[in-house]
Amino acid sequence: MFEFCKCGGLLVPVDGVMTCRKCGSEQAKAKQSSALLKTAHADEKVIVLETNESNLPSIEHECEKCGNAIAYYWFIQTRASDEPPTRFFRCTKCGHTCREYS
User: Rounded CA gap, 8 and 19, in Å?
Assistant: First the structure.
């Protein structure tokens, strides 16, 4: 549990006394709470959704395997959330799948 000073600074223990990192004032240490915070995680499961490819949008994208000019595409967030999503392409003729990073 964090404790804060009246000025808004964070109180940290220094020689048994809570001292403000911002203004340097000292306060008596607050009584420790008897509450216990516990976080439980359920077993993580990956759900794969099957979809009919004809429902996906298509775009002009040359297949590197067969040379076909049309591919279905979709986006998936494969990296951190502050990075752009990855775009996947699937050839409408041979089904070859490739990806493009932005």
Answer: 12
Co-location of 58 and 95 in the same domain: yes
Per-residue tokens: 32: 């420790």
Q: Supply the residues annotated as catalytic.
A: 82-83
**Range(s) of the domain holding residue 70:** 53-101
pTM of the model: 0.48
Q: Are 30 and 47 in contact (CB under 8 A)?
A: no
The CATH number of the domain where 90 resides is what?
2.20.25.10
pLDDT profile of the chain (102 residues), mean per 10: 78 83 80 48 57 77 94 88 89 91 72
Bridge partners of 91, per DSSP, are: 71
Nearest residue to 98 (alpha-carbon basis) of 65, 49, 69, 58: 65
Domain count, the chain: 2
In a domain, 82, yes or no: yes
